[in-house]
């Protein structure tokens, strides 16, 4: 499949990225996708520590994600012409400031404004990280390594932050986010790959390869399903009467599974599995797990399902990322990764909150099945040439 719009130089992926540069990209990936790790703790803290209802809590997280989506779309469109290192550093730094300021607030409106600002800053930085990954010598492998890093980050986060919230209150949530963004600021400042930091060729502004937007839509629908259900994992566990310690233990187990399972497996199976088959199967498995997660009343069933739920998204998206990087070698599609992830994530929490308040927990699982069908349809359309 060819990229019909990219210039020859823009279509050439970077021959390689130094280990320090790759490490900086992995750190930026982990910080920028903090929502994938922290959604249940984030929503749960907004409800339990700040006194917001499910709809308000979902709306705050949605504002962060909407800001990230808008910024990512604009950044991806101009990816080949931007000063990538400078903007990545500035984006993570501004996100850190926004979260540190949020730690001093408790009212909805100030928190809403800071969530939106933090999301926009984060979206710029993360788009530049992902676009740079997409132009590396092996985008699939680098994204898989970043997935391993995200899994390790999840283990550390789930083990450290819930106890801090119990001891120090809701402000600890935003202080933890501020610290994470500060680390990403330093990493990108010191080691962000700066070869070709400014455009090394005229901007690739032509049309994307056929099928790219359909694959993007399929990924976005999968992330919608994940966010809609995963945002309320802690809330669902509490509603089912499971012990708080058991729920936290499940979230830690989830982080361990994400660390040792999907990304390393995706790297090992890169040459053995068809990306088309993986992205077609991913939404189906995700929907089945969503049904089990929302309808199970026994902890022995609920906990294992919750522990592997996110792994499906990580595994599938690793193959989707490599597929998109191959379909569009200019880096624009890869740079839009935050937009495609967070469009779904932005709508998921608020839609999930509305469904829970109106129709109950089971409505989340039923909705997930319908969304999965749409996702499979999009992947089928976008990957016809990959047969």
Helix content: over 70%
Main sheet record: none
Q: Tell me, what is the CATH class?
A: Mainly Alpha
What is the typical, i.e. mean, pLDDT? 84
H and E string: HHHHHHHHHHHHHHHHH
Distance between the termini: 12 Å
Shape: globular
CATH architecture call: Up-down Bundle
Query: Could you say what the CATH topology is called?
Result: Growth Hormone, Chain: A
**How many H/I helical runs?**
17
**What's the total count of β strands?**
0
Q: What structural class do helix, strand and pairing data support?
A: mainly alpha
User: What low-confidence regions span 5 or more consecutive residues with pLDDT below 50?
Assistant: 1-15, 195-203
Describe this structure in words.
The chain has 387 residues and is mainly α. The protein has a single domain (17-195, 209-386), classed as Growth Hormone, Chain: A (Up-down Bundle), CATH 1.20.1250.20. Helices cover 78% and strands 0% of the residues. It has 17 helices and no strands. The chain has helices spanning 8-11, 19-32, 34-48, 54-77, 84-102, 108-134, 139-168, 171-191, 212-230, 233-239, 244-260, 262-268, 275-295, 299-327, 332-335, 337-359, 362-382. The longest helix has 30 residues, at 139-168.
Short description:
By secondary structure, this protein is mainly α. The protein contains 17 helices and no strands.
Topology:
Elements: H1 8-11, H2 19-32, H3 34-48, H4 54-77, H5 84-102, H6 108-134, H7 139-168, H8 171-191, H9 212-230, H10 233-239, H11 244-260, H12 262-268, H13 275-295, H14 299-327, H15 332-335, H16 337-359, H17 362-382
């Amino acid at each position: 499949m060819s990229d019909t719009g990219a210039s020859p130089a823009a279509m050439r992926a970077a021959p390689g990225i130094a280990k320090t540069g790759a490490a900086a990209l992995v750190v930026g990936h982990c910080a920028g996708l903090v929502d994938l790790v922290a959604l249940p703790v984030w929503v749960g803290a907004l409800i339990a520590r700040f006194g917001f209802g499910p709809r308000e809590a979902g709306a705050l997280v949605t504002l962060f994600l909407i800001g990230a989506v808008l910024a990512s779309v604009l950044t991806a469109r101009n990816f080949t012409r931007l000063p990538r290192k400078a903007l990545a550093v500035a984006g993570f730094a501004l996100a850190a400031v926004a979260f540190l300021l949020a730690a001093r607030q408790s009212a909805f409106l100030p928190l809403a404004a800071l969530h939106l600002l933090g999301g926009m800053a984060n979206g710029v930085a993360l788009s530049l990280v992902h676009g740079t990954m997409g132009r590396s010598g092996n985008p699939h492998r680098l994204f898989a390594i970043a997935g391993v890093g995200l899994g390790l980050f999840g283990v550390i986060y789930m083990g450290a932050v819930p106890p801090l919230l119990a001891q120090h209150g809701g402000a600890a949530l935003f202080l933890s986010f501020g610290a994470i963004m500060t680390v990403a600021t330093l990493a990108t400042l010191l080691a962000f790959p700066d070869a070709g930091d400014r455009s090394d060729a005229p901007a690739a502004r032509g049309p994307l390869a056929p099928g790219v937007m359909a694959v993007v839509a399929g990924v976005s629908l999968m992330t919608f399903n994940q966010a809609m259900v995963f945002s309320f994992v802690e809330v669902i566990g509490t509603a089912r009467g499971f012990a708080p310690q058991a729920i936290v233990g499940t979230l830690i187990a989830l982080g361990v599974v994400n660390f040792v399972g999907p990304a390393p497996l995706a790297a090992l199976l890169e040459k053995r599995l068809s990306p088309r088959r993986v992205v077609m199967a991913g939404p189906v498995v995700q929907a089945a797990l969503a049904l089990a997660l929302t309808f199970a009343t026994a902890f022995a069933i609920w906990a294992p399902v919750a522990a592997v739920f996110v792994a499906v998204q990580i595994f599938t998206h690793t193959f989707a990322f490599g597929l998109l990087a191959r379909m569009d070698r200019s880096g624009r599609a890869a740079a839009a990764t935050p937009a495609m992830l967070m469009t779904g994530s932005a709508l998921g929490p608020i839609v999930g909150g509305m469904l829970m308040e109106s129709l109950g927990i089971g409505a989340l699982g039923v909705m997930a099945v319908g969304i999965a069908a749409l996702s499979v349809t999009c992947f089928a359309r976008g990957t016809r040439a990959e047969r």
